[in-house]
Amino acid sequence: MQMLMPKPQIFVERTLALIKPDVVDKEEEIEDLILRSGFSIVQKRKLQLSPEQCSNFYADQYGKMFFPNLTAYMSSGPLVAMVLARHNAVSYWKELLGPSNSLRARRTHPYSLRAIYGTDELRNGLHGSLSIFSAEREIRFMFPEVILEPIPAGQRARDYLNLYVKPTLLAGLTALCKEKPADPM
Question: Where does the Nucleoside diphosphate kinase-like domain start and stop, copy by copy (predicted)?
Fold first, then answer.
């Protein structure tokens, strides 16, 4: 009798986490909570953003009443940017953060990071990407040297194999058969 096993899947999602200027002194404590929650910290850097860089990072918030205060707050001191990885990283990180308004987080999610470290609606202590797509954009912003390769699946994977892998293998194996070297490696 043959046991049916699901095909193994290797897919580790990544998300961006920011420790904001007013709680950067709690960096070690927050990192410990992150690691104990099953995340891996893939990359980390401490930096200070200019108001212009903050405006670019939060461009989707442009035009909202709190935008000037947000950019001033985020550029007021150093922050810690981290790329977190784990299965369903975006949703688990959002859950660990809790609501964006720290006052509401204290009422509804008292053990969330924003309830613990945030002070109000604007100064909520930490940032997290809202979706996989925003995570990719935000990671590229904070870590411009990083190479984020999407993991193709389904038809995209077949197209990639047909377009890049198969022709390379075919050319290499054909050359190998023609040459018949003593040591093919």
Answer: 12-150
